[in-house]
Amino acid sequence: MFGSDPWWLVLIKAVFCFAFLMLTVLFSIVWERKVVAWMQLRIGPNRHGPWGLLQSLADGIKLMLKEDVVVRRADRIVYVLAPVVAAIPAFMAIAVIPFGPAHDEISIFGHRTTMQLTDLPIAVLYILAVASVGIYGIVLAGWSSGSTYPLLGGLRSCAQMISYEIAMGAAFASVFLYSGSMSTSTIVEAQHDRWYVLLLPVSFLVYIATMVGETNRAPFDMPESEGDLVGGFNTEYSSIKFAMFMLAEYVNMVTVSAVATTLFLGGWQAPYPLSAVWPGANHGWWPLLWFVIKVQVLLFFFIWLRGTLPRVRYDQLMKLGWKVLIPVSVVWLMLVATVRALRNENYDFQDIVLYVGGAVLTVLLLSFLVDVFRERDGGGKHAGGVPAGQAGPGAGPFGPVAGGFPVPPLPGQEVPHVPRRRPRREREPVVSGGVDTLSDGKEAGGSV
Question: Which residues cross the membrane (predicted)?
Fold first, then answer.
């Protein structure tokens, strides 16, 4: 059903996909500023256009007219190509997203065609591959800038991508097992009676967390953390190159929202009450409306997270990816594979629940017993497994700046307690030119 359209119809579809992404990005920027302003009891943009709807367009024109500065220490070729590498892959994933049913064709200038640019037997793997290429733009931008903070931002983005794409792939694998295909149109068709958000809720939650991490959005915006990296990987960029990075971020938001809609929320299908009472809800141009509404709901979720949650620490970000999301997604994938294997062997639903529930309870019981015996054997130990009062191998006394930079304590090392404020009786006014603390006076041999 794909590959038979004339070249001009394929061109029209490609232009539509590009225009859909650009218009959604322009609207999302204004919507984000409006929603965050509403959460913070502010007015938000209200100058450009009716209700400030042209604010994002004005921002784009302003960025294009700004001075384009290229830092002296930058690798000029890579420095210029990095925004392009980040922006182009963001547009490519939309090519395999279905906006309507494949079996119900629409008419465009007298030609019957589907509401999808193209489809592949491995369309979801194509999306993963394109998303992986886009991260090179951020990494190369941080490296080519010739500055410390952009380099740290690029390295953070690389580590973040590796950490969260593993859990994302495991979440996708659960969908593959249930639908029996990697084609996006087939996956949507397989959800005609029940959406996968109900059948695979854990996979949906894991993907929601990973898509926020993949797009470097708050609270996971560590690559451009203003508090410790000034601006992150794009610190040394200005004008149109800076705008391309921002465009890539918002286009990636739209892309991951479209993927979540396709894999878990029924794609272009109308919600259940509406599809049950209205036979024509999934025919004609109506599926495009349901698809856009679902994407906008997920975009609102992005905005809500940014206006609600503070930025996490980098160690918390890595711990969530490696110690929570990856184990949960792998265990859930094994559980889904077991259920599918039992269903293929024609087991009854009650037998499947009995077998799977028994296995889960057994694992939980074993983990509980292991924790009980571990606590019994390690009663006199620290959390790091080292007996109290003894340091670990080669630990030695704890030095917070050992080696010239801040380091965490090793297992067995105790962090000395530092009071936030001295008692009032020890605080004295500071004399100009004299010692400023009680400890300084004692070390100097004098008195305060």
Answer: 6-31, 77-100, 120-143, 164-183, 195-213, 250-268, 288-308, 320-340, 352-373
Structure tokens at 21: 């992404």
Token digits for 164?
Answer: 């969260």
Q: What are phi and psi of 385, to 5 degrees?
A: 85, 15
Which amino acid is present at 328? Answer: V
Q: Which two structure tokens, joined as six digits, stand for 220?
A: 């996971």
User: Is the residue at 306 inside a domain?
Assistant: yes
Select from 107, 126, 15 the least CA-distant residue to 7.
15
CA distance readout (Å), 424 to 32, 421, 427, 429: 47, 8, 5, 11
Are the beta carbons of 216 and 160 closer than 8 angstroms?
Answer: yes
Q: Is the pLDDT of residue 143 over 80?
A: yes
- Would you call 108 helix, strand, or coil by DSSP? strand
The answer to whether residue 214 sits within a structural domain is yes
**Would you say residue 11 lies in a domain?**
no
- Decide if 428 is inside a domain: no
What whole-number distance in Å separates Cα of residue 242 and Cα of residue 70?
12
Provide the domain count of the chain.
1
Residue 176's domain comprises 63-358
Q: Give me the residue label for tokens 């010692």.
A: 435
- HEC string of 51-82 equals HHCCHHHHHHHHHHHCCCCCCCCCCHHHHHHH
434, two tokens: 């004299």
- Total-model pTM: 0.78
pLDDT in tens, 332-341: 898 888 888 8
Task: Count the helix, strand and coil residues of the chain and give each as a percent rounded to the nearest 5.
Answer: 65, 0, 35
> Which of the four pLDDT bands, split at 50, 70 and 90, describes residue 397?
low
Is-contact 84 256, C-beta < 8 A? no
Alpha-carbon distances, residue 173 vs 83, 165, 258, 308, 430 (angstroms): 31, 12, 18, 31, 65
Whether 187 contacts 226, CB under 8 Å: no
381 DSSP assignment: B
